[in-house]
Predict the structure.
Amino acid sequence: KNEVEQSPQNLTAQEGEFITINCSYSVGISALHWLQQHPGGGIVSLFMLSSGKKKHGRLIATINIQEKHSSLHITASHPRDSAVYICAVSDNAGNMLTFGGGTRLMVKP
Amino acid sequence: DTAVSQTPKYLVTQMGNDKSIKCEQNLGHDTMYWYKQDSKKFLKIMFSYNNKELIINETVPNRFSPKSPDKAHLNLHINSLELGDSAVYFCASSRDSLLEAFFGQGTRLTVV
């Protein structure tokens, strides 16, 4: 069993829908990262959080340290949000070490 | 300006060859990383350097040797390439290990 589990693995949504991607981890962490990988292959860091909630535009990330769980929400989804979303955790020394398997999101117009 | 740049973007080579992938960051970051993404899109850390010193070396064959000539560069040299080395390799950097990382565009290595 992977130390970082994401669900769902694949997600198809209609434009405008509210989307939630979940991440659970089983190790001690200093921070959790949400990354976005576009079809072209490039990886962009969306959020790094160690507690609470962060918002950037239509994206919201939350983390519950006690439950070892994080969610990434996309409001008013758009086809350009189609990408693979990857959850990763940093160990207690802060190094980004362990990745989830990714969630492939497709938003249809 | 590209913050983290990797070269080449694509690399096709024969088994047994030796090749290098270069990574440079112009962000003034202290920490640099190499990650491998396999055919199933799973990312794994390979190496982490902080101020030119190796701080993480995951279970990676000795054929892989990172070289950090200065804080802005972390190159990956691979000897005696094997078919299983085919993957996308990502370089990343962060100001320190507790802050978000910036990724290069990836190098798709194909060993034939």
Remarks:
- The two ends of chain A are 36 Å apart (CA to CA).
- Chain A has a mean pLDDT of 92.
- Residues 33 and 42 of chain A are 16 Å apart (CA to CA).
